[in-house]
């Protein structure tokens, strides 16, 4: 294998380890596009790891941003698979540089802001940490008309991030983060203290479903432009939406326990969803 092939293979190992859902969805792409998705994911994953696991996340994120800016000038570590693969992606596709920088800005928010007052505020954050991924991927998935797909791509990113938030309520509490909007909690009478007790109550379910309703709206909105994607990308994008939306169903089936268990869609359930989509 060439150095570039090895780099892409390393990026695949990252996505396959951390996101079986994305691995499954984008495995349907042709090889050139599929490998480019792996590289973008590896970039995003490294930022996530800095924020969630870094010893000095602010300094590490700053250093990463500087590395990316140097990368844009053609200066990067030739021993780092992430940059090698991403360089090949940037040469092959008209990538949206602003989306990469916005992603870094969004992750920086997590270092200073640990709660959100309104859904509007939460969606602003979600755009930066999730919709940006969609904007990174669009030039790969739809090279000829990616600008037409921006609104749908942004909506899908928002829907996925809200789903992440609804799935990870317990894990986020352990990190002293509350992403459920304060105004929605107040509307249903759920206090911060009650939430931190980690008990599923009728009040908590109302708050959870309020946010889930918005996520469902965004999933539906994102699929309105699905027919504008090239045929080879249509099914992977649709699959990623359906597989991710199924996480909400999984939480409901598990009686909304997002405090003691990590809810996921099983391999068998994913196969059924994909078969139903193609049927």
TrEMBL record:
GO terms for molecular function: geranylgeranyl diphosphate synthase activity; squalene synthase [NAD(P)H] activity. One of its GO terms (biological process) is carotenoid biosynthetic process. Keywords: Carotenoid biosynthesis, Transferase. Pathway: Carotenoid biosynthesis. PROSITE patterns: SQUALEN_PHYTOEN_SYN_1 (PS01044), SQUALEN_PHYTOEN_SYN_2 (PS01045). The keyword Glycoprotein does not apply. The keyword Nucleotide-binding does not apply. This is Phytoene/squalene synthase family protein. It comes from Halalkalibacter suaedae.
């Amino acid at each position: 294998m060439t150095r570039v092939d090895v780099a892409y293979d390393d990026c695949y190992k990252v996505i396959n380890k951390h996101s079986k859902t994305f691995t499954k969805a984008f495995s349907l792409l042709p090889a050139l596009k599929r490998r480019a998705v792996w590289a973008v994911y590896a970039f995003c994953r490294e930022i996530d790891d800095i924020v969630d696991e870094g010893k000095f996340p602010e300094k590490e994120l700053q250093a990463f941003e500087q590395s990316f800016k140097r990368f844009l000038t053609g200066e990067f570590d030739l021993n780092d698979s992430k940059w090698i693969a991403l360089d090949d992606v940037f040469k092959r596709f008209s990538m949206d540089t602003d989306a990469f920088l916005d992603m870094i800005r969004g992750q920086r928010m997590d270092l200073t802001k640990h709660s959100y007052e309104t859904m509007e505020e939460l969606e602003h954050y979600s755009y930066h940490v999730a919709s940006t991924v969609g904007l990174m991927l669009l030039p790969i998935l739809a090279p000829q008309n990616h600008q037409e797909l921006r609104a749908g791509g942004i909506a899908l990113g928002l829907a996925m991030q809200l789903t992440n938030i609804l799935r990870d309520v317990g894990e986020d509490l352990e990190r002293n983060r509350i992403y459920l909007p304060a105004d929605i909690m107040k509307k249903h009478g759920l206090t911060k203290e009650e939430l931190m007790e980690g008990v599923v109550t009728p009040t908590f379910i109302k708050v959870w479903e309020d946010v889930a309703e918005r996520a469902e709206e965004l999933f539906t909105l994102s699929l309105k432009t699905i027919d504008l994607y090239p045929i080879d990308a249509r099914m992977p994008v649709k699959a990623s939406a359906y597989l991710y939306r199924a996480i909400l169903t999984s939480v409901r089936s598990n009686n909304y326990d997002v405090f003691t268990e990590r809810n996921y869609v099983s391999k068998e359930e994913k196969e059924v969803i994909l078969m139903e989509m193609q049927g």
